[in-house]
């Protein structure tokens, strides 16, 4: 009888671990993958003239794009180059006129 009680608790523990990993997957891993996919699609859709904000809070208009970098115009005659991954979001057109 003691052996059956021992194996029953082992199965329960395995079941609890499975439930824990399922919860972790749906609460942490899956949403993170979804955000990464959305960010990748946003970067692929970038085009010249888009107004963006970087992760560091720099607001600028896209002046040029290559494989890894984006050139931003942040003021008259001031252009900087940032990594594509630094782009946090694309702003609605006309946002920079008010800034």
TrEMBL record:
InterPro entries in UniProt: Preprotein_translocase_YajC
Membrane topology summary: Single-pass membrane protein
Gene Ontology biological process terms, A to Z: protein transport
The keyword Translocase appears for this protein: no
GO cellular component terms given for this protein: plasma membrane
Pfam families with a match to the protein in the record: YajC (PF02699)
Cross-referenced SMART domains: YajC (SM01323)
Location(s) in or outside the cell: Cell membrane
TM segment ranges: 12-29
Family: Belongs to the YajC family.
Protein name, entry field: Sec translocon accessory complex subunit YajC
Species the sequence originates in: Thiothrix lacustris
């Amino acid at each position: 009888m003691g052996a059956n009680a021992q194996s029953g608790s082992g199965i329960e523990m395995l079941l609890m671990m499975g439930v824990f990993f399922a919860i972790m997957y749906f609460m942490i891993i899956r949403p993170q993958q979804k955000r990464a996919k959305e960010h990748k699609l946003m970067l692929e859709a970038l085009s010249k003239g888009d107004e963006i904000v970087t992760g560091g809070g720099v607001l600028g208009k896209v002046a040029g794009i290559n494989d890894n970098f984006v050139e931003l115009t942040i003021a008259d005659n001031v252009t900087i180059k940032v990594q594509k991954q630094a782009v946090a979001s694309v702003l609605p057109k006309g946002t920079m006129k008010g800034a």
